[in-house]
Amino acid sequence: MKIALSVKNVSKYFGDFKAVDDVSFDVEDGKFFSILGPSGSGKTTLLRMIAGFYTPSEGKIEIQGRDMEGVEPNKRPVNLVFQNLALFPMMNVYENIAFGLKRRGERGKVVREKVEMMLDRVGLPGFENRKINELSGGQKQRVAIARSLVLDPGVLLLDEPLGALDAKLRENMKVELKKLQAKVGTTFVYITHDQSEAMVMSDYVAVMNHGHFEQVNTPQNLYNSPASSFVAQFVGDNNKFIVKIQKDERGNFSAVTKDNLQFRLDKPYDLEGDNIFEMYVRPESIMINPKEDPNKINSIEVEVKAILFDGGNSRILVVPKNSEKEIMVSLPQNRKYDYLRPKDTIKIGWYHSASVCFKGTGERVYEEIE
Question: Which of 227, 232, 324, 326 is deepest in the core (most CB within 10 A)?
Fold first, then answer.
C-alpha cells in the first residue's frame, strides 16, 4: 500500500485560537479522500498547510514519503484547485492549460502533446482555441482541473471547487469528478461542507469539527455507523430524540422521551453518571403501518402533519399522540402512499437496531428532558 499523503499530529494556532487540533491521517495513492465539515471547522486551514501556504504549529506532513518541512508551495508535488477556479480570461483553453508547463520551462511539441492528452482525459478534445468566456461552468471546471493535472502532481487538492456552480450543474459535476478521478488515477484530497458531495465521490471521508476529526471511514460506514452525535447529525438526515436510557431486570435497554414515548434498544449502553442520551433514527429506517414482528419493532401511533412531495425524496412529517415531537419519515419508492392526507392517524415503526444513541451533551439537554 503506497501512501500519497501522510499527516501526523498536525496542529495550527492563530494566536490563542487552535484552528487545527492534533490531526492525523493517511491517504493511499490513487484514492479520493474528502474532508467534510461546517464553516470554521478547520478544513481549509488544514488544506493550506498541505499546500504549503501555512506552516504547521506542530506535527509533520509527508507527501509521497517526503517530509514537507521547509518546502515552498511551488516546489511541493501538489496542485490546488480553488472555488473561483482562477482561470486566465485573456488566454484561451490551450494557453490556460499550458501555462504551468511553460513556466516550468517546457516548450513546443512536448507541451502541445501534454495539453491535447489532458483535454482528452477531461472530456474536452478540440477545445484548445475556445475562449474562457465561451465555456459553461462545468467546462471551466474541467479546464481548471486539467491545468492542475497536466503538471502531474502527486496529490491534487480541491477547495470546494463546486461551490460556485448552480444546483443542477453541481449534481452533474459530482458524478463527472468521480469518473474523472477514477480515469486519471491521481490522488484527490477534496474539501467540502456539502455532505452529498463527499458521500457520492469519495473512497474515504474525514468528518471535521472544531479543528479535529470526529471520524474517518468509508461513506457507507459513516452513514450506517456514526461514531459521534455530530457525525450522526452532519452526515445524512436524522430524527433526533432526547432520551433517558434505562435497564430493566432482564437486562434489556430502552429509551424514554420527556413525552413518555418508550423505545426498545438492541444493545447495552454505559449508564455511569447521568443517563441522558441523544437517540437518532434515520427517516428511511421508519416504516409506515409496519407488519413485521412487533417484538423487533418500535411502533407508535402518529398524526400526519404534512406531506412533502419531492419525487424520489418525498417524505411525510408526523407527530406522535400527546407529543410535540416532529418525526420525518421517508416514503419508499416501491409503494404508493397517495391515500395519506394531513391529520390522518397512522402507525410508524422501526427496528430496535435502527436507533443509535450517544451520551447527552450536558446540562441543556438534561433540562430539556426534565
Answer: 232
The rounded distance, in Å, linking the Cα atoms of 253 and 249 is 10
Q: What angle do CA 288, 293, 294 make, to 5 degrees?
A: 75
- For 19-49, the pLDDT digits (tens) are 999 999 999 999 999 999 999 999 999 999 9
SS3 148: helix
C-alpha cell read off for 86: 482562477
Question: What residues contact residue 192 under an 8 Å CB cut-off, 6+ apart?
Answer: 34, 35, 36, 160, 162, 198
For residues 145 and 156, the answer to whether their CB atoms sit within 8 Å is yes
- Contacts of 194 by beta carbon, 8 Å cutoff, 6+ apart: 36, 162
Same structural domain for residues 60 and 142?
yes
Looking at 282-333, which runs of residues are DSSP E strands? 287-288, 297-308, 315-320, 327-330
d(CA 31, CA 311): 33
Domain containing 353 equals 237-369
Residues across the chain: 370
Largest CA distance in the chain: 82
Do 329 and 348 touch, CB atoms closer than 8 A?
yes
Would you say residue 62 lies in a domain? yes
The CATH number assigned to the domain holding 340 equals 2.40.50.140
Q: How far apart are CA 281 and CA 104, in angstroms?
A: 54
Dist. CA 218–CA 314, nearest whole Å: 26
Tell me, yes or no, whether 183 and 300 share the same domain.
no
Cα of 232 vs its chain's centroid, Å: 12
Amino acid at position 67, single letter: D
Q: Do 80 and 172 belong to one domain?
A: yes
